């Protein structure tokens, strides 16, 4: 099942069921007005939404043409966004860029931060930045959305709480981050609003690419129309999603609609390219002695997308332009 | 105006107007079902709620008796919780306890972290902890709630965005925090769900104690029935609320219903006592060579309250017991 949110003028938009090929959409206010409402009562809502989905795919009901530019983020306001950093080749390279060490504990204790969840950008909303000297970078990630997760959930138990998946562009302001991290309190200014992909999908949509814990497909990032990276999201992920959920729920429950991010998808093999600019800059320093690639400029575009083994877009594409605000 | 949320069985509870003396309450579903709904349209909702409040105080309408044990947090689910750490005597003492330095930048650059906002505890909900070896501590704070705050708001502009105030118990697990802070990514496991006071109030309820930026009243914390501290929230606050809001909004807008915390209220003069246990422990180390006071134990109770100059409770009391879960 695939779901999206129409930007209908209200704060949370209008929930829609979208067909498998991302061509047609059906608003479903008779079931739930918003994705959060559906997640609040997922056990009873999901079968009703699934029926609409099957009818839409089967041509038994007619949808309206899906216009991606009219979509809000599937969850425009969320109550929680916990972003892991599960690909240690990303962690290692970003730390190298900051001149920071890679303590051995990071192999067993996940990095995770509480992100701003009050405003997710839609898939085509611009990245608005007041000053391009902030060092604007994209970060392409996979994210899961849970139902209510009890405190102390184990990784094995956490699997059944993964209800939906999508992609996120976790935009980062590289030049503001070092001083924030030095304070220890995480990111406030260094991470502006993140963008979500056009649709969220249930795990069954991924077929064999979803093993219950990781997504075994490449995640493609394009910068100004050129492929920048296509690392495999199923490789080199040191902590899988159930482990990340368990980490987040060690001392508190997580409410339905919690987003858990993978962290920037990154492979040890750098020939796959990168899901963020800073990793390329670090490799340039190592290979050539200096970073050559600049961060994003006003007018730059980033596109993030994941295709299935037949080349069909699973979540639709995040496609954002950077603008001055 | 004072507002509370009845725990009516739904996820967000039911909004109620409460009289000035915290005796009577009137559910107001005809105006807004929840506090978030009211905050979403505050400019039009606030006058309607204020009318009910005046009628209730004037005895023109009858309320039901306010039962604090039936209250949920005023905002049980919130989209954003940004907690500052504006009292530097607290910061300095907590850092001493961890053996950490106090860099001079902390006098000009506020400490702030993104907290978990998906589940605020009601004023009498227990503090549930799986293991008392986590080092359970209370932290008594003042918090403001904003309407929509635009990106880049200045401190002067931020004043008008403060719509409501209340108290928070920002429960902290001291023995989990050092390793989290060392990672730089802020608190995930070290800060379980925080509790809010019974009611939120509009700034005018504070009279001359509110200067538009700080609350000039003592905040009293009782531990197992004994006064533990009564520092003045208006003294030694290095960054006032408008400055904290401006800091949080430097690179992103903040949505209506954002909570901004003061950090643990603390005075340089330690004879006023403390709003958290760790500060007393540090002073014991300095004065006596070793920390004597333990952290909270199962069955312990903490009470946090602020009275006006006539001794009337402004927000009602947070009163929590620590339990094993």
Task: Explain what you see.
Chains A, B: It comes from Nitrosococcus halophilus (strain Nc4). Chains A, B: This is Fumarylacetoacetate (FAA) hydrolase. Chains A, B: Residues 82-308 form the Fumarylacetoacetase-like C-terminal domain. Chains A, B: InterPro entries: FAA_hydro_N, Fumarylacetoacetase-like_C, Fumarylacetoacetase_C_sf. Chains A, B: Residues 1-77 form the Fumarylacetoacetase N-terminal domain. The structure is a homodimer of 325-residue chains. In chain A, strand 15 and strand 16 form a beta hairpin. In chain A, 20% of the residues lie in helices and 23% in strands. Chain A folds into two domains: 2-70, no CATH class; 73-324, Fumarylacetoacetase-like, C-terminal domain (Fumarylacetoacetate hydrolase, domain 2). In chain A, strands 1, 2, 3, 4, 5 and 14 form a six-stranded antiparallel β-sheet that branches. In chain A, strands 7-6-17-10-11-13 form a six-stranded mixed β-sheet, with helices on one face. In chain A, helix 3 packs across helix 7 (277-288). Chain A is of the alpha+beta class. Chains A and B meet through strand 7 and helix 5 of A and strand 7 and helix 5 of B.
Note the topology:
Two copies of one chain form a homodimer.
Chain A: E1 2-6, E2 14-18, E3 24-27, H1 35-40, H2 42-57, E4 64-65, E5 71-72, E6 81-84, H3 88-98, E7 112-114, E8 127-129, E9 136-137, E10 140-146, H4 155-158, E11 162-169, E12 172-173, H5 177-183, E13 195-196, E14 200-201, E15 220-223, E16 226-229, H6 241-248, E17 259-261, H7 277-288, E18 301-305, E19 318-324
Parallel strand pairs in A: 6-17, 8-19
Antiparallel strand pairs in A: 1-2, 1-5, 1-14, 2-3, 3-4, 6-7, 9-12, 10-11, 10-17, 11-13, 15-16, 15-18, 18-19
Helix pairs in contact in A: 3-7
């Amino acid at each position: 099942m695939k779901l999206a949110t129409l930007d209908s003028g209200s704060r949370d938009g209008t929930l829609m069921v979208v067909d498998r090929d991302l061509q047609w959409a059906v608003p479903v206010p008779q079931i739930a007005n918003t994705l959060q409402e559906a997640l609040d009562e997922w056990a009873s809502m999901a079968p009703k939404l699934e029926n609409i989905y099957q009818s839409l795919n089967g041509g038994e009901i007619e949808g309206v043409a899906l216009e991606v530019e009219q979509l809000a983020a599937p969850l425009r306001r969320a109550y929680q966004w916990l972003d892991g950093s599960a690909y240690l080749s990303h962690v290692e390279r970003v730390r190298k860029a900051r001149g920071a060490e890679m303590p051995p504990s990071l192999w067993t204790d996940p990095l995770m931060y509480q992100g701003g969840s009050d405003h997710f950008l839609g898939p085509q909303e611009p990245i608005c930045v007041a000053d391009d000297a902030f060092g604007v970078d994209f970060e392409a990630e996979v994210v899961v959305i849970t139902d209510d997760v009890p405190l102390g959930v184990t990784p094995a138990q956490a699997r059944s709480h993964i209800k939906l998946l999508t992609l996120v562009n976790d935009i980062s302001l590289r030049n503001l981050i070092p001083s924030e991290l030095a304070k220890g309190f995480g990111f406030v200014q260094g991470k502006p609003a993140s963008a979500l992909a056009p649709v969220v999908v249930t795990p069954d949509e991924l077929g064999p690419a979803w093993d219950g814990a990781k997504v075994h497909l490449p995640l493609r990032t394009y910068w100004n129309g050129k492929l920048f990276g296509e690392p495999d999201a199923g490789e080199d992920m040191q902590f899988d999603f159930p482990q990340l959920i368990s980490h987040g729920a060690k001392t508190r429950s997580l409410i339905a609609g919690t987003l858990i991010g993978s962290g920037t998808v990154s492979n040890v093999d750098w020939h796959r390219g990168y899901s963020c600019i800073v990793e390329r800059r670090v490799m340039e320093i190592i290979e050539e002695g200096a970073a050559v690639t600049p961060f994003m400029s006003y007018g730059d575009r980033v596109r993030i997308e994941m295709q299935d083994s037949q080349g069909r877009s699973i979540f639709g594409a995040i496609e954002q332009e950077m603008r001055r605000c």
